[in-house]
Amino acid sequence: MSENVKIGVSACLIGEKVRWNGMHERDRYLSEILAKHVEFIPLCPEIACGMGIPREQLRQTDCAENIRLIGYESGDDLTQKMTDWADRVLPGLEKEDLNGFVLKPRSPSCGMRHAKIYSTTGKPPRLGSGFFARKLMTYASLLPIETSDRLQNPIVRENFIRRVFVYKRWNQMLSKGKSIGNLVDFHTRHKMLIRAHDLRGYKELGSLLGQANQSNTDTTFNNYATLLFKTMTLKATAKKNSDVLFHAMGFFKKQLDLGDKQELQTAITAYQNGMIPLLIPVTLLNHYARKYQKPYLTQQYYLNPSPTELQLLNHV
Length: 316
Ligand code: SF4
Prior knowledge:
12% strand; elongated; four-stranded mixed sheet; alpha/beta; 49% helix
């Protein structure tokens, strides 16, 4: 592990036998690839709040807009047990210094968006977040969170890895102190990356910084962080990445000869058509940025990910 990247994970996903039936739900990508590059902090909220193994299966039930965690067979209400534990433990999550969280899909505790929420009126179940996941997203609203099934999709996976590293750098920047100078430097080095996720968010972040001054530092930091991580959740598609790459290519209008330009253009187009990975045109651009000394480009995290980030992106 070349740098300390910590990711919380539903414990059953990395092979811990914590499920209601004493089994695990080991995920190959997490256990065989991600685990080599990050430190996992495993957590089973059902065990942590005091339930045993084996235990009764749970389900969420919507009781007049109040979602309860109920034993499947017995009807026992375990809502308070989970709530007391989560409200005690989650405020201290910051101290764990997590950079992201991977949750098990569809679980009534850990699921995110696609956990079933049953009705008391006989209506078919609706889908929403699991009980613990909802609490986690409330207490750590900026933390990059994904479910293991969605990480099978290469674009979602790349997006999650990028967000994890942006979140890590965000916290590193905060630890140096909240100054507008630090924030402007952070923004400058992330410009291409943000732009690849959403041009509108990129422009809004730029204008937010344009209005920043020493008297509104806290508000600026809060608004910037909210908008940044909202923007980063939007997918950086091949089209958006290609636009950013062509924009960067414009920095070498005068230096590159026709052959070099054609090579770069061919690489970007091949990437856009799904024939080669993003890292190939990115590496070419990085090479030219250094060769022709373009400081704006050489400081971009988009072209210069950290070694761990680069290794993980190589697996996308
Ligand atoms: S509560 Fe979460 S971590 Fe525990 S078994 Fe269920 S899905 Fe896995």
